[in-house]
Amino acid sequence: MRRGQTHLEEGSQKQPAVGYWKPLMPSKGSKEEPETGCQDAGTGGESQSAEQCNVSRLRSSSVEIREKGSEFLKEELHKAQKELKLKDKECERLSKVREQLEQELEELTASLFEEAHKMVREANTKQAASEKQLKEARGKIDMLQAEVTALKTLVITSTPSSPNWELHPQLQSPSKAVFRKGHARNKSTSSAIFTAASHNATPEPVSRECKEVDSVLFAEFQSWKESPTLDKSCSFLDRIYREDVGPCLDFSKQELSELVRAAVEQNTLTIEPVASQALSVVKGSAEDCGGPKKCALSGLPRTCKHRIMLGDSGNYYYISPSCRARITAACNFFTYIRYIQQGLVRQDVELMFWEVMRLRREMSLAKLGFYPNEI
Length: 375
Prior knowledge:
Keywords: Coiled coil, Guanine-nucleotide releasing factor, Phosphoprotein, Protein transport, Transport. The protein is mainly alpha-helical.
């Protein structure tokens, strides 16, 4: 553009020198020359205006091109800014998704660890409960084996053909009983005793019990039998605790009585016979534990052939035959209702009810002081 303007300016400067030049002394034959110079001057003016028009057109076109280019660049810039905003929003959304996934992953990991710890705790609890049940089952098996051995001994030593008169004194006739118990050394004395006994012996009437079911007690037992439990809150056990178990296990030493009752309820009480050599010699035992000649529960001077241990404490308490009978009666009752609770008793409801009543009678008799002679 500048080069074209420069050439035009140079041409415009040279043409006036040619167009306005006039000779001083025109010749005769050259009259038309001044007219030719004027025509050249007119032509130069027209070309100059044309050039100026072209320059103005070029300038306007360049301005339009610049405006259009700036508008295009603005549009492109606007589009780029929009794309950047969209990408920023997408990045922000993806970052939120990532944070959410990380949080969910942390929560899932924490819940998995918690569940794993919970399973381990439950497994340890079940293992401890199983070991405890196994220990109790082994103790029950040992107890049942001891009972079976004792029953076998009774069966072996007493048969229908040759009964054991000491184990079954009711099988003896009065005359034989007097004769066996006598220690006569001559025949006349023994025959006299035999004759006197035969004359004085009178047949004893056979006693038969009459039983009648108490409707209130039977209804309470039936209600308990539907869902057997060892909870004292039910009416069936509440009555037995008040009327039988409580009085039966109520001894003079109140603190020790509470411990004995808790051990009987939890089935953790152990009764064992005292060695024969320990009966004759009293070694320095504690006052509250009693001794072979003093009962720990009643505090009275009695010959104690048995002793008890509460749980795994290792402390032994000497008890008299009367106290042993009371504790044994309560233990028999709790053992039977535990068997019912565990579903080991397969009998009619009425038969189970009468067995419970028999065990209650044993507790009442033991409380009143009645107990078998072999104790």
